[in-house]
Hints:
Helix content: 55-70%
Structural class: mainly alpha
Distance between the termini: 39 Å
Strand content: under 5%
Shape: elongated
Oligomer: single chain
Largest sheet: none
Radius of gyration: 16 Å
Number of helices: 4
Order of helices and strands: HHHH
Number of strands: 0
Amino acid sequence: MNPEKRRQIFERLKAANPHPTTELEYTTPFELLIAVVLSAQATDVSVNKATRKLYPVANTPAQILALGVDG
């Protein structure tokens, strides 16, 4: 897909829904990314429950990496 076609798709999406919302809770783009990845395997409600505990402890890539596998 070329850049022009991608731009047209985004313009059409923006025109159809200029102010999209989500039930996922987040405060930074990285937090939204993590929530979206998790929501592919779970409901938004359960993702919000998990991220309410995760984000105060680790809400950056470095902090999540520092948790390690067991964390």
